[in-house]
Amino acid sequence: MDTVAAPLAERMRPNSLVDLFGQQHLTGPEGVLTKLLASGTLPSIIFWGPPGTGKTTLAGILAAASGLPMFSLSAISAGVKDVREVIAKAKESGRAILFIDEIHRFNKSQQDSLLAAVEQGIITLIGATTENPSFEVIRPLLSRCQVYVLESLKEEELRGLIANALKNDGILNKRSVEIKEYGALLGISGGDARKLLNLLELVIQSTPDPVVISDQLVMKVAQQRMAAYDKGGEQHYDIISAFIKSMRGSDPNAALYWLARMLEGGEDPKFIARRMVILASEDIGNANPNALLLAVGCFQAVQFIGYPECMLNLSQTAVYLASSAKSNASYTGIKAALKAAHDHGDLPVPLHLRNAVTGMMREMDYGKGYQYAHEFENNFKEQEFLPGQLSGKVFYNPGDNIRENELRKFLKDRWKDKYGY
Which residue segment(s) compose the domain that 190 sits in? Predict the structure, then answer.
């Protein structure tokens, strides 16, 4: 009985760092992963980067080099019970590597279940995530891991990937293939090596020899064979990305189209509504505070009404968000504040801001010198609210829009030149 060949991306998965395309900042001669392998040490690691950049591949290479048994879990389907079973197996073997794909999908209790085993060295954790781990991974676990950022592959790396597959894959190298144009192949892949290889194989499988790959051929095959919306696969991420970027880019027509694609494909309306709540703060923020109110109202309406009627709520909200003034000042502000919190550690709260709830605390000057804002003109009194090491540090810089220009004027009136408003 004939066996079905694995997808091209799986057949071409590298077994060593030197065979990996891209990520030279990590895998080159001076790369940190190269040095880790040379030293024989392997800390717990989180790989953060877009899909198809080699996170899973790197985990396999590191695990193989360590000689330790490796267990794999997907955070999409695994729970605390699965984690505990892996930890028990790791204890039996003395030590093991646990690879968790989509680790950002683990909730706090699931992440908590890893802590003791990681801290005790029972498991070496390798996590993969497409989301910023600073936001998605709990601090105690993050502090026990090295975070390495992976980048989308560059054009020359993607071309090299294609050439390597055509030359070395046992199935494709039996075909007559000429690459006339690369634009559509590279454009559709978007720097995702896995998507590129699978698209290349799809085009070749769909065409008799000799295969002359042009942009027109690639687009024709892609539209015929890749247009279906897979809410559990890559299309799920691609189309929600297009939806979000359309609203961010103030294009209500494109936003409605991608919304319709998701609804036609059976996407969970609550998932769509949640993403609009996030966008309302990330990309609109205080340029239009009503955006968040409408997005939250939409999410509640979706829960109350259900599909298909809730498509009207989703449509209204998508159009409003796309047509709204934009600002990412709150988003960049919290990112800057998180970086400061990470870089400077646990800076002490200034004494005058501490709550003096006991006599001893008052004797230690807790609360001494604090000025109660409502006792002063305009309900404001200039004083220091940041730790001394961060005095004058700007985290929130109002965007250039009507609403935030009002906020800028308010802050300038209060703080003069301290924050550069």
Answer: 155-225
